Amino acid sequence: MPSYVVTGASRGIGVRFSFTDVLEFVKQLSASDKNQVFAVVRNKSKATFLQELSRKNVTIVEADVTDAKALGLAAAEVAKATDNKLDYLINNAGSSTNPGFTLDQFPSPEAVEQDIIENHSPQYQCFPSAPQERLSQEGLMLSSGFGDLDLTLRGEVPAQPSYSIAKAALNMVVAKYAAQYKPEGFVFLSISPGFVDTSATQTGPPSAGALEERKMLMKAIPLIAPNFTGPISTEQSVKMQLEVFENWPVEKSGAFVSHHGNTTQWL
């Protein structure tokens, strides 16, 4: 029975080129009763979408990814349930703050530093079921095309500096894990979900910063994807990501690719 851990799994997040609806991973993976899915959330009581899903093969695990002790307890819970044989880790926990800001719009150097720290820290906390305890055979980290140098330059995208820096660093974390554990057969992959329409899970109007960010993005799209026709659905994005992830060869462990499985089509 294949087992999966999905972090940041409680709900979907806004319409952006960088994000996807993580709940959709849980939905698609748990659609088969042959799979066992552990959905890691910060607060069980607020994970209403997961509770409404109500599937016997989904276990909700509470842990704040910025709390090492909480992650350790969550890992122990999963280890016990899987007899130390977790197969897949899908890690999406993280944050995005100050949307729309460019580096010169921050009020001070200290504000830039703090924003980078806030974007960085959750993504380094690779669920402690990672290979050190031999609980996971494959790890997928959700990244973003914003973390790609070539896309940033071709698209002339100055927005989301802290988030982009964090994602570029995350891609290196994945590469480091791969370099260490590829000889043992572990697969690590960093993937961008594409431009995903998650408006169905949005609550309330977008902030002024989010609108400014979107304006910058729309200006960049013709430069990076002249044939772009619009965002894809969460269902399509997750289906494509899982197909890439579950078929990724160990020989290419550590790569950073799009939901198309390449580095040329980010949308």
Automatic annotation (TrEMBL):
Q: Which UniProt keywords apply?
A: NADP
Q: Where are the transmembrane segments?
A: none
Write down the SUPFAM superfamilies for this protein, in alphabetical order. Answer: NAD(P)-binding Rossmann-fold domains (SSF51735)
Q: What's the domain of life for this entry?
A: Eukaryota
Q: Indicate what this protein is called per its UniProt record.
A: NAD(P)-binding protein
The cross-references to Pfam families, in alphabetical order and at most eight, read: adh_short_C2
InterPro entries, per the entry: NAD(P)-bd_dom_sf, Sc_DH/Rdtase_CS, SDR_enzymes, SDR_fam
Instruction: Record the organism.
Output: Favolaschia claudopus
